[in-house]
Amino acid sequence: MFRSVLTATLLAALASFSLPAQSVKLQATIPFDFHAGDALMPAGEYLVTHTSGFLLLRGQYNHPKSAGVIVAGATKAARTNACWLTFNRYGDDYFLASVSQEGSGLVLHKTKREHVKSRILTESAAARAPMTTTIAARGAR
Fold first, then answer.
1. Could you state, in order of their start, the residue ranges of all structural domains in the chain?
2. What is the C-alpha to C-alpha distance for residues 23 and 20, in angstroms, rounded to an integer?
3. Distance from C-alpha of 57 to C-alpha of 39, rounded to nearest angstrom
């Protein structure tokens, strides 16, 4: 009996994780190299999609590089038709931080590399927060 209840509970939990809070499908031109998860991505045109808590970035045209990133959570912003990608910048290093589409967004986990960059920045004499860079995106079909 306990085993059946446990199995049903686990299946229900897994099913809830597989239902995305929102569907994201964007295209963006990113003019700088950046980190998405543990992957270093070259500047270029990207297709960004979200499925079941997993964000996929696929390079378009002449660079077929892709990366997958686990989403940390969802956010709700003021209702807008705008789409954008937000990056944390530490010196010359950019890290994809969030993806927003039409008032809702997805927040990504910080990687070990980003935590190290952040720690180095805050321990420096300036002790400042990372700069944030936002890139406009467009809905993709």
1. 20-139
2. 7
3. 10
Q: How many CB atoms within 10 Å of residue 83? A: 22
Element holding 114 (H helix, E strand): helix 112-123
Measured in whole angstroms, the distance separating CA 104 from the mean position of its chain's CA atoms is: 13
CA angle 39, 42, 48 (to 5 degrees): 70
CB atoms within 10 A of CB 49: 15
17: left (phi over 0), alpha (psi -120 to 50) or beta: alpha
85, β-bridge pairs? 99, 135
Nearest to 92 by CA among 36, 47, 32: 32
Q: What does the pLDDT profile of the chain (141 residues) look like in tens digits?
A: 434 433 333 333 333 343 344 567 889 999 999 999 999 999 999 999 988 788 888 888 776 788 888 887 777 665 566 788 999 998 889 999 999 887 778 888 899 999 998 888 777 755 566 788 888 888 766
Q: Which amino acid, 91?
A: G
pTM for the model stands at 0.73
